[in-house]
Specification:
Number of domains: 1
Order of helices and strands: HEEEEEHHEEHHHHH
Radius of gyration: 16 Å
Shape: globular
Largest sheet: 3 strands, mixed
Strand order of the largest sheet: 1-5-4
Number of helices: 8
Helix content: 40-55%
């Protein structure tokens, strides 16, 4: 049974999405798929004319509700950027693509990036995700959602830090092996957020853990 607080969050998110002409794709499936074919648990896409917010609810509520909140915070970032061209979201846009989309195209072999470009786009993407995760913790508290924010912060750190692994591996993690869903990985993460620069390096044990979830 979905709590009243989560229902209120969904209603507010739907109203905000409708106001800004964002289509909400709340799917009963286990995964949702990005335009480039990547399977994910959720996404927010505001590239060009398409504006869509997707979340896969075909898994336990304790897994999809944090993803819903996370993606709603990406929408918040985008909305903020409409009036602030110096926002983190605005700065991540390169020739109408955001840095995360360029990283996805690179991972799928559709474009090539030199080392300077790759480092720049990974850092920009990580910064967007870090800001989003900080907003997510704030929104969990704002709506009184029954999620332990210390544990969530550890899980969020696993997700943000994984972008540094992408720079080395050129691979996304496998579905069912999300670093934020594997306790042996997220439990080794800090209980506080760090600076973007601090995520640019990884202890060997974290790199080894990340290596185990990609194929």
């Amino acid at each position: 049974m979905i709590s009243d607080n989560v229902k209120k969050l969904i209603q507010d998110t739907e109203r905000l999405a409708a106001k800004h002409q964002v289509n909400m794709n709340i799917s009963n499936a286990r995964i949702v798929t990005l335009r480039d074919g990547t399977n994910v648990n959720g996404y927010f896409d505001a590239n060009g004319a398409r504006r869509e917010f997707g979340v896969a609810t075909g898994q336990s509520e304790e897994k999809w509700v944090p993803i819903l909140i996370h993606e709603s915070c990406h929408m918040d970032q985008w909305i903020d950027s409409l009036n602030d061209k110096n926002s983190i979201w605005s700065k991540s846009i390169v020739d109408s693509y955001n840095s995360e989309e360029l990283i996805a195209l690179w991972m799928n072999g559709r474009i090539e990036l030199n080392d300077v470009q790759l480092a720049k786009y990974i850092s920009s993407t990580r910064n967007v995700e870090l800001d989003c995760e900080i907003r997510t913790v704030e929104k969990i508290k704002q709506y009184g959602i029954d999620i332990d924010t210390i544990t969530y912060t550890q899980k969020a750190n696993a997700y943000v830090w994984f972008y540094t692994m992408i720079q080395r591996s050129r691979k996304w993690y496998d579905i069912e092996k999300e670093p934020y869903n594997l306790e042996h990985i997220w439990s080794m993460m800090p209980t506080h957020f760090m600076t973007n620069d601090e995520y640019s390096t990884m202890p060997d044990k974290i790199e080894d853990a990340f290596s185990s979830i990609i194929s």
